[in-house]
Amino acid sequence: MSHLDATHNPALRSWVQGADGHPDFPIQNLPHGVFSPPAGGGPRGGVAIGDSILDLKAALSAGLLQGEAAEAAAAPSLNAFFALGAAPRRALRQRLSAMLEEGSADRGAASACLHQAADCTLHMPAHIGDYTDFYVGIHHATNIGKVFRPDNPLLPNYKYVPIGYHGRASSVRPSGTDVRRPKGQLKAADADVPRFAPCERLDYELELGIWIGPGNRLGESIPVGQAEAHVAGYCLLNDWSARDIQAWEYQPLGPFLAKNFGSTISPWVVTPEALAPFRIAQPSRPQGDPAPLPYLLDEADQRHGAFDLGLEVLILTPAMRQQGLAPHRLSLSNARYMYWTVAQMVAHHTSGGCDLNPGDLLGSGTISAPDDSGFGSLLETTKGGKQPIALPNGENRRFLEDGDEVILRVRAAREGAVSIGFGDCRAKVLPAA
Ligand code: MN
After folding, report:
1. 217/356 Cα distance (integer angstroms)
2. How far apart, in whole angstroms, are the C-alpha atoms of residue 206 and residue 407?
3. How far is the CA of 206 from the centre of ligand 1 (A)?
4. Tell me, what's the pLDDT at 334?
């Protein structure tokens, strides 16, 4: 499952300037994406290396790459590449690593296929057919539950069911696309009737995104022990949330307009291979918690189905931007605080026969740390807006204001491995229309 090979070697160096020591994209990462080069020619697949992008279409034309996987990875949408599964993806990774490593004979030809990432436009990496958002961050679920049920924050199903809801694929956008503050029905606690107005409690949610690779047929479930083979890669996901709209509309069928006005993803698809060094055992459940039902329990998945990934949220307000200040870190969480593994999410999603397709996107749900240094939403950090957070320049925030930019980042670091990141997942709040 999480085997390491020569592409993970921490001693591996790249001839691409700025790749060695790059916080996100050293040669050990090699994430896939879709971009447009500055000179035109349209969207095509690429691989991030340092501050550059390797143009896979150009690499194919130059004869540096060949075969079905390379062609699918060079396309303007990665759905077909996702559908191929792990073996061709791994073989392509090995070829790319050999091409980009120090001393490679391909250096001359490959360097002609590089673009400065800053000059390129990143696009959605795949067409998302369906998007499902889970709720596996147990500290988040507990914090939110406490607001409603102080004595009994988690509902009785939480430790049996990987809870989720079907989200909206049409409004998912890549990092850098502004998000407009939604208008909707708001009902103050002391009001008899709602009014229609711009959201006053706009929030972010720090989540991991999971790209589905090979799908399953309708009516055929994916066993938990095989579920990893159906994952094509990972990204960051900001599930922007209008808390006031949510509070009024969510009963009895769950989130609706509070969550469908925009979701932001980091545009690079970080492969399961790149994350192999950061696998950990699923943290053991607290004493007294039930064991997962057999269809959600796989021994290998329990042994290394979780991730040790540092997850950051930062904010940059218009005043901070004007003052030339760097983004301020609001929290530091970790993917290890997921109560269910990705394999359990995939197995559960398909357990009743629902078909997943290449390019479907799953959200983990907000991942909060156990304490307030790492809460994944403002709703938690500010206790529902009651305790504003102080920013270093003297500003306060209860919820997001117009012009605020929220930045999500991953820092994967482990002894004996080169650390990698996902690239930014960032977007600015536009005023309501
Ligand atoms: Mn969410």
Report:
1. 8
2. 10
3. 8
4. 98
Report, as residue numbers or ranges, the catalytic residues: 140
Backbone dihedral angles phi then psi of residue 30, each to the nearest 5 degrees: 55, 55
> Is 90 exceeded by the pLDDT of residue 396?
yes
Question: Whose structure tokens read 């090699």?
Answer: 30
| CA 398 to ligand 1 center in whole angstroms | 19
- β-pairing, 405-411 vs 425-430, is antiparallel
Q: What is the DSSP string of 280-348?
A: EPPPPPPTTPPPPPGGG--HHHHHH-EE--EEEEEEE-HHHHHTTPPPEEEEEEEGGGBSS-HHHHHHH
* Exposure string for 361-382, b = 16+ CB within 10 A, e = fewer: bbbbbbbbbeeeebbbbbbbbb
CA distance 393 to 243: 26
pLDDT digit string (tens) for 55-102? Answer: 999 999 999 999 999 999 999 999 999 999 999 999 999 999 999 999
Tell me how far the alpha carbon of residue 326 lies from the centroid of ligand 1, in angstroms: 27
Beta-bridge partners for 49: 52
Q: For residue 166, what are the β-bridge partners?
A: 132
Three-point CA angle 376, 378, 383, nearest 5° = 110
Query: With bands split at pLDDT 50, 70 and 90, how would you rate the model's confidence at 1?
Result: very low
In the prediction, which pLDDT does 151 show? 85
| Spatial CB neighbours of 277, under 8 Å, sequence gap ≥ 6 | 4, 8, 28, 412, 414, 416, 417
For residues 138 and 231, give the distance between their C-alpha atoms in angstroms, rounded to a whole number: 22
CB 410 within 8 A of CB 212: no
Give the Å distance between the CA of 388 and the centre of ligand 1. Answer: 22
Q: Cis (ω within 30 of 0) for the bond into 327?
A: no
DSSP string, 57-103: HHHHHTTS--SHHHHHHTSSS-HHHHHH-HHHHHHHHHHHHHHHBTT
pLDDT at 283 over 60: yes
- Evaluate if residue 2 carries a pLDDT over 70: no
| Ligand 1 center from residue 218 Cα (angstroms) | 26
CA angle 160, 376, 413 (to 5 degrees): 95
Expressed in angstroms and rounded, the spacing between residue 334 Cα and the centre of ligand 1 is 16
User: How confident is residue 149, by pLDDT bands cut at 50, 70 and 90?
Assistant: confident
Q: What is the mean pLDDT of residues 121-127?
A: 98
Residue 303: both structure tokens together: 């042994």
Would you state the pLDDT for residue 184? 98
DSSP 367: -
The sheet with strand 32-36 has its strands ordered as: 114-116, 52-55, 44-49, 32-36, 121-122
